[in-house]
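Q: Is it fine to ask for two folds in a single conversation?
A: Yes, each is treated on its own. Send the first.
Q: Here.
A: Result:
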Amino acid sequence: MGRYDPFSERPSLRRLLDDVGEQSPYEIDSIADKKHTPIGLTYSTDPRGPWAMPQEEECKRVHVLGYDPRAYFIAHELAGNLHLDPVKLLVHKKNVMRSWQLEGEQVSVWKGVQRSSQGRGRAEAEWIGRGRDEPSNEHIDQLIVTLACGVTTTALQNIIHRIDNRTTICLVQDGLGLVEHLNATLFPDPTRRPHYVLGHMSASLGYNKQWFFGAKLRQPGKLFLHAVERGVDLLPTLKFHPPVERRMNATQFLRTLVTTPGLHAGGYNLENWLIQKLPALVFSSVIEPMAVVLDTTYDNIPGNEHAIRLADELLDELFNVIMAMPELTNSSKVVEHCGLGALRKKTIKRLWEKGSSQSDMLSRVRAGQWVDIDYLNGYFIKRARELGIKVPQNEAVVDIVKARIAKRRNEMRNVIPFESDDVPNKPAF
């Protein structure tokens, strides 16, 4: 696909530049889901039950890598599951480790004014950053990652020696396309790479400004899970017959999440999972870049005529890509949840719910830090190229956001030495 037209040939975009909680879960086809992913079974430790897990499978530890409300909420709920070993938070930032000690080595969740904390043997933190005398060799069986996609690869390099084909990694992130990137960079050998589970949370969560290891639950929701097909790069004889141990490890992780009550988790086939994920991904791909382009808070976007026009153009392009995705086969269900009208309605509704708050992407751009644009708009651009669809406006906003980051970094270098754990934005695909 050729390059998009320059700014001078797109007057609406040029004029715009010159001017300048989560949705409720939708209904899904539960019958199809249960048929494709029969993991939503009642958990039982009774050895007489047909679905009782082997004793050695009950005590596996879940590791969590992330510094956001999703990480702390998930860790809090897993810590309350007495059938598991204490959940372990992986920390590679010294200031975060200090906060853990100052806050009494516990993770908390607020539901209104009510606080619930898990610690004292149910939640632990492990330093995995530089300066450790003896790096741990403890194998990681089950890992949940809520870090932004753009820094996940760098963070995993600190623990890559603890990950292999017995590991299952659950990615609960805003973007898509990271699995392919991890396989290409960290796990090129198909026989040794981990299993993956894609996660999407519909709960509305927020930070607690008084506590680093805390999350506010504004509105309950669900954790939608999809186990990525294993072995797409393997020979057919291996693809369809993975070792029993590896199948058990992946299934055990799914069952662990599904049977942890506070997570409200369920397993779904790829189509039904995408139906839940795509509206949120569309919002992040349309509204977040708009906030950066306008350099403003969410509430000022609807009042800008040029912004609304460009947002509609972005949405139209994303809709065309979604409708052409071969993973989505049930046309009536896709139109109901991901049709152009449905996407526009959900995007506007979520924008109003944001109120006068500031975009996280804008905050990071102002700080000269990376953003996940390559896994938001960039994901759709990659899929569009595969499908032969042109998405010039999405290509344009990706360039604009990256240009803003580069400009801000140059400004900061002229004032103070630039030092950050973050990596600069580079194309992920």
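Q: Second one now.
A: Result:
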Amino acid sequence: MDQKMDVGAAFSYIAKDEAWVKKLIIGSILVFTGIGTIPALGWMLAIVRKAIKDDFDLPEWSNFGTLVIDGLKYVIAFGVYYIPIVMIAMIVFLPMGLSDILFEEAPELAFPILLISLAFMPFVFVLSLILMFVQPALTAILADTGSIFEAINPMNMYRLYKANFGEYIVAMILGGYGVTYLASFGFYLFCVGMYPAQIYAYTVQGHLFGQAYRRAKASLELAEQTAA
């Protein structure tokens, strides 16, 4: 197994692809349309797949149908965890957004409802952290197997995290929080800059998730060989 996770490569490897500018422009245009985010997510999965094989070339956009299907699979798989958390968050934060109406229409109920909402805020925060923690393994399993059921299986994620916990934390922080702020920076720098920033963020995210998965799988295979 490699000596350590190459974090720097995740941010710089795209320059090794001679057509990287063209590929990022295509991705940016797709994301700009809104609906093009689906194939862009499929493209990100293709990056994960290449990183698992230690391949540093960016995927092509030519196999568009496959990218759309993979993107839809990702939306479904991630949505299994994402949608319940969003629904809980709405239940918690909606009363706060309607606080003026509550105090006007039902003042005797407004304070208890808002108090309950505040009490559940830490719970929503913890669920959000779990969602960020789930993303690296779920994404890589889906990229490797193509199976939504394998990707959402908590036991599959647990085995990977157990085998390579430290590097999955790195992948979560840099590939989750880090690229989110990167995309936000693109928005604040130039409004149009958010689209290239988002596609670049996918390249970083995909490579980090693929690296962590490859190394976790190698650890698991080594453990199985040792046990045998």
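Q: Anything structural to flag on that second result?
A: Two points. The chain has one domain: 7-227. The radius of gyration is 20 Å.
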